[in-house]
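Record filed below.
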Amino acid sequence: MADTWLVMGLGNPGPRYEKTRHNVGQMVVDEIAHRRGDSWKQHRAGARVVETWLRPGGPKLVLAKSNGYMNTSGGPAAGLASYYSTAPERVIVVHDELDIPFDALKLKTGGGHGGHNGIRDIAKALDTPDFVRVRVGIGRPPGRQDPADWVLSEFGSAERKNLPILLADAADAVEMIADDGLVAAQQRVHAPRA
């Protein structure tokens, strides 16, 4: 299992949350699964998973979406990491990030949770914050809108036009991390756009 990556896409369950900003992590793992024509299966860890490969002979990817709510993501993440014998440094968590503008990505490992309850719960359950994060920018709410309402609302019409590109870029970033490592992926993703 040394070449296995667990990729957790964070979000909330059910149609009510499916298209909200908080579910962008799940949208990204859906994109990766869609590229391979794979379908989701229930796992006893309280999640849906897709077991696939980056390419024939390449790293194995275990894509995962918790069946529970964002703030209880840790249990499924830890259960799957244990089941697949995946060390925390080979866990990639894809999540929404208020402090990054919409249409931007940042990749990192470790650090604080920045008030993100899904990240907080996973760090607690894995007993370390040292897992890889693909932070998908959703930007801050306009005016005085409560950030909690913002993350649970759907993307605006202008954002929806660019959302497929953002999801594809984030999926590419996950695949780069699994293929070339975090540093190489950061150099490509964080480079200024021409």
About this structure: The mean pLDDT is 95. The chain has one domain: 4-189.
